[in-house]
Q: What sequence folds into this?
């Protein structure tokens, strides 16, 4: 059975592309038949990662952002990569409420939201070279089907 | 095609549809579309102008036209909260759907803002 799918997208780090990026991922994830809630989770996480690249990665110039999505069985994997300034201290950057751009009214919740809304988050970064954010989440029908069958078999056996 | 190359300074704000309403010293912001970093910039500017010019004390964010918000929305609300808190003002949010509600709960924002079902309910509580 062919249950993998992949896509790669490159766009400029302009703020109007935030909604473009999350809409693309949501449309791509739709083939997993996610719930509205799961879709909202993915959109929020993607929005945070892309916004980070736009605001922090390319602070005062426009660069390229690469977004790669893979579907593997019931899991969606999203990779967002920029080639900007990079993060000096990832641990610090991931602390809730920590932000280097308070003048932009950044709340410092970006990584916290990504962590909360996805199953797994992994950040790689090198100063001067860029940042790669990897996120995965199990979504959709196969998951729910498994639960249904489990429930059903429990009911049968009891 | 020239316009496409001008880049950042030439962006057309998408949040044009956001409506602002003033009643007594209360500013009601009817958000429309998605509240992300891109739209937040315009909303912040417009709201701050109105707050200063009209001696605004309380602010109501009406989410009836919004089904998406990320951490930029938290920033917008926190920023306005800091502006009105010194004069004893309050912030309320209305018509929150489940997606936006999760963001608010996760961020702990409900500790400092009020949540109401409708704009009228919020106004009754604030004024």
A:
């Amino acid at each position: 059975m062919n249950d993998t799918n992949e896509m790669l997208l490159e766009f400029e780090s302009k703020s109007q592309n935030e909604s473009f990026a999350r809409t693309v991922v949501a449309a791509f994830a739709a083939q997993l038949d996610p719930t509205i809630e799961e879709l909202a989770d993915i959109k929020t996480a993607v929005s945070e990662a892309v916004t980070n690249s736009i605001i922090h990665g390319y602070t005062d110039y426009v660069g390229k952002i690469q977004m790669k999505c893979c579907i593997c069985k019931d899991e969606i994997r999203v990779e967002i990569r920029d080639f900007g300034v990079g993060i000096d201290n990832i641990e610090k950057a991931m602390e809730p409420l920590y932000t280097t751009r308070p003048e932009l009214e950044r709340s410092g919740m970006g990584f916290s939201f990504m962590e909360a809304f996805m199953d797994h988050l992994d950040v790689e970064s090198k100063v001067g070279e860029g940042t790669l954010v990897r996120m995965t989440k199990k979504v959709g029908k196969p998951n729910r089907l498994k639960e249904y069958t489990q429930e059903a078999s429990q009911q049968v056996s009891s | 095609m020239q316009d496409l190359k001008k880049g950042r300074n030439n962006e057309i704000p998408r949040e044009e549809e956001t409506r602002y309403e003033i009643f007594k010293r209360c500013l009601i912001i009817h958000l429309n579309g998605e509240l992300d970093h891109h739209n937040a910039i315009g909303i912040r500017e417009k709201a701050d102008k109105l707050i200063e010019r009209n001696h605004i004390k309380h602010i109501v964010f009406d989410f009836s036209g919004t089904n998406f918000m990320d951490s930029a929305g938290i920033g917008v609300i926190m920023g306005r909260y800091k502006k009105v808190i010194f004069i004893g003002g309050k912030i309320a949010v209305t018509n929150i759907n489940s997606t936006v509600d999760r963001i608010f709960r996760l961020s702990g924002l409900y500790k400092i803002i009020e949540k109401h079902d409708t704009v009228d309910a919020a106004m009754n509580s604030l004024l």
In short: Helices of chain A lie at 17-29, 36-57, 90-94, 110-117, 141-157.
